[in-house]
Design brief:
By secondary structure, this protein is of the alpha+beta class. The chain is built from twelve helices and 14 strands. The chain is globular, with a radius of gyration of 18 Å. It starts with a helix and ends in a 5-residue tail after the last strand. It binds N-hydroxy-L-asparagine.
């Protein structure tokens, strides 16, 4: 069984599995609602829901939610336990954006388990919106975050195994990309609409496994991995970040919703643009998925290839949604 399906079935706790119904690829929840990339993130949504269901703000909800996979050593695509770059270094990317257009991100940051919390520090406590590498680490340490080794034994041994055959070549060949996303990619993108009608989002990843040191994908780039416009809605992306950046994916999805498309149609239009740029043959070997909500509480998703899932949490409880896809 492919790991993606395996994760989808088993990473849910027993209780969650009982609760999580399989929903339609688009729906209307009203307020509040929270959605995330990938089925295992029903657990992250549940944490966000605690905030939303007690009248809390969307920005606090997505912050709390994204911290769940960041702390989970078994999630090898986010935070602690993330697969390292080709030099064996775990480098993390994250961003957060609120309903007033405030935003913050950290990129290629090492040693801090919760990059989303540092992104929030960038947003709230600095005059900047993006801080990278050692600067991000320095900011985190100045704000009392603990420096920790984030490379687990499991991720280290997978990296060493990869080194045996990979010849230090970054994972960029089209043949490898689809398989590697199925195996390793689980970026969390989360967007929420709170009971006051405000929208926020957050995104966190360890990026592409075995990437070149210093590589940054879409996830911490506002407009690419995440975008929020409180008048319209919000979107987030997962998958091969290089392709998402090329079309400024999440911003594109929000602009499509502004023009009247449903969340699912808007996500599909972003995927269509990527397919057009790459051509069918290359696009078939890439995976990218988008999720979106609009101001009315409608949600939807769409992916390049099969196997993408979205986790939704509403007043009716958790749901896992299998995304439609281009191929
Ligand atoms: C990246 N978009 O760094 C991230 C990786 C990812 O599912 O989404 N994994 O390109």
């Amino acid at each position: 069984m492919k790991r993606r399906k395996f994760l989808g079935l088993t990473a849910l706790t027993g209780q969650m599995m009982l609760l999580a119904k399989h929903g339609k690829a688009q729906g209307k929840a009203g307020v509040p609602v929270v959605i995330s990339t990938w089925s295992p993130n029903v657990k992250a949504n549940a944490e966000a829901w605690k905030v939303l269901s007690t009248g809390g703000n969307a920005v606090d909800a997505v912050h709390q939610g994204v911290m769940v996979p960041e702390a989970d050593p078994n999630d090898q695509s986010v935070g602690y336990g993330g697969l390292p770059d080709r030099d064996g270094r775990v480098t993390l990317d994250a961003c957060i954006m609120d309903h007033e257009g405030n935003c913050g991100s950290v990129m290629a940051m090492e040693y801090i388990k919760h990059p989303i919390s540092v992104a929030r520090v960038v947003m709230e406590k600095t005059p900047h919106v993006q801080i990278v590498g050692d600067g991000a680490l320095q900011l985190a340490l100045e704000h009392g975050f603990k420096k920790e080794n984030l490379l687990t034994e499991k991720s280290e041994s997978m990296w060493k195994e990869w080194l045996k055959t990979a010849k230090y070549s970054p994972m960029t060949t089209v043949e490898n990309i689809l398989e590697n996303i199925k195996e390793h990619h689980d970026t969390i993108g989360m967007v929420a609409l709170d009971s006051k009608g405000n929208i926020s989002g957050a995104c966190s990843t360890s990026g592409m496994a075995y990437k070149m040191h210093g590589r940054v994908g879409d996830s911490p780039i506002i407009g690419a991995g995440l975008f929020v416009d409180n008048e319209i809605g919000a979107a987030s992306a997962t998958g091969v970040g290089e392709e998402v950046v090329r079309i400024v994916g999440s911003h594109t999805v929000v602009e499509m919703m502004r023009q009247g498309k449903s969340p699912e149609e808007a996500c599909k239009e972003a995927v269509r643009r990527m397919v057009k740029l790459k051509g069918d043959e290359k696009a078939k070997n890439l995976q990218i998925g988008f999720i979106a909500i609009n101001k009315a509480g409608e949600y939807g998703c769409f992916a390049m290839n099969n196997d993408f899932t979205m986790a939704v949490h509403t007043k009716d409880g958790p749901q896992v949604i299998k995304s439609k896809s281009w191929f």
